[in-house]
């Protein structure tokens, strides 16, 4: 009986990891860096639909960045994947990386 509980727990844990990875991937938005303004802590991104932000159409937008160090990871013209969230002051990029 104890072994069955351990197996069930392991299976539930594996499922949770798989679902978590799928949700994290779904939140990633594909885009291209159009402009970087390090002084203002902003980045302009041309991107496809951003379902996680309620945007169904591709567009180009200026985003704030959560951490100014994120701007040093990319340059204009880079294809990127990023995550953003909506807040009181607009949209903020919380993570960004060059697309693979």
From TrEMBL:
Recorded superkingdom: Bacteria
Which Gene3D superfamilies does the protein's record reference?
Copper binding periplasmic protein CusF
Pfam families xrefs:
CusF_Ec
Residues annotated as signal peptide = 1-26
Name the record gives this protein: RND transporter
Query: Which organism's genome codes for this protein?
Result: Bradyrhizobium pachyrhizi
Q: Which UniProt keywords apply?
A: Signal
Q: In its keyword annotation, does this UniProt entry include Protease?
A: no
Keyword check for Signal = yes
């Amino acid at each position: 009986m104890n072994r069955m509980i351990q197996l069930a727990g392991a299976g539930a844990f594996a499922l949770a990891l798989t679902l978590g990875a799928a949700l994290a991937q779904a939140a990633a938005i594909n885009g291209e860096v159009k402009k970087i303004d390090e002084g203002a802590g902003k980045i302009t991104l041309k991107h496809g639909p951003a379902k996680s932000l309620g945007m169904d159409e591709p567009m180009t937008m200026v985003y704030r960045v959560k951490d100014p160090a994120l701007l040093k990871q990319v340059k204009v013209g880079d294809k990127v994947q990023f995550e953003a969230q909506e807040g009181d002051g607009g949209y903020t990029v919380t993570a960004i990386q060059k697309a693979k």
